[in-house]
Amino acid sequence: MLTLPRCRFPSCMRALGSRLVGFAGMALAAGGCATGGSSIQLTSVTGDDLVREGKILSAGELNGLARPGTVLVRLTPNGAVQRWTSGADGTFVAQTTMTMEYGRTPTTGAWGHGRWALHDKTYCLHIDWITKDNGKVATEKSCYAVYRMDARLFMAPENMTPSMKAERYGEVRFGS
Q1: Contact at 8 Å (CB) between 64 and 174?
Q2: Is 105 helix (H, G, I), strand (E, B) or coil?
């Protein structure tokens, strides 16, 4: 289980824009504002657990959660925490705790320009990850179903193959 600080002031996330640098940028990339706040605990489960015990949200349920202005926080399968506020125009600026490598230089504090969209029962995203020192380092492009299991939500593929069932999928929170 991963614990991270909650940002009490959503404007601190938007104010960063392309200036995610230094200590303040690192604090936000870790999932919170420098002002502190309560913590969120995110978990992960196997794809097999989701198939057996989870329920995929309907298009209507997903539309009720994922709308412009929503703050999305998610735990990725590799253990990184990503956070963004969904813009009305389908864009966002994301922060991540993931260490990115470009050439021989690993760096933390990456951020990315992204787009989000809902397609029936899936949440689709496209993020061009960027670091202060190295520019664009990676692109993430996926569509996920959102599963409800034990009062928690998880992003994972809608149609899981046997090999996907063995993988772990992280929790997602939609908030304000």
Answers
A1: no
A2: strand
Digitized pLDDT (tens) for each residue of the chain, 176 residues in all? 433 333 332 333 333 332 232 222 333 333 343 223 345 689 999 999 999 999 999 999 999 999 999 999 999 888 889 999 999 999 999 998 876 554 555 556 678 899 999 999 999 999 998 876 667 778 899 999 999 999 999 999 999 999 999 999 999 999 98
> Rounded to two decimals, what is the model's pTM?
0.73
Which long-range contacts link 125-129 to residues 24+ away (Cβ below 8 Å)?
A: 127/94, 129/94, 129/96, 129/100
Q: Which residues pair with 126 in a beta bridge?
A: 115, 141
Separation CA 110–CA 18 (nearest Å): 11
Reduce the DSSP state of residue 34 to 3 states and report it: coil
Torsion, CA 31, CA 36, CA 40, CA 44, rounded to 10: 30
Shortest CA distance to 77 belongs to which of 144, 25, 26, 5?
A: 144
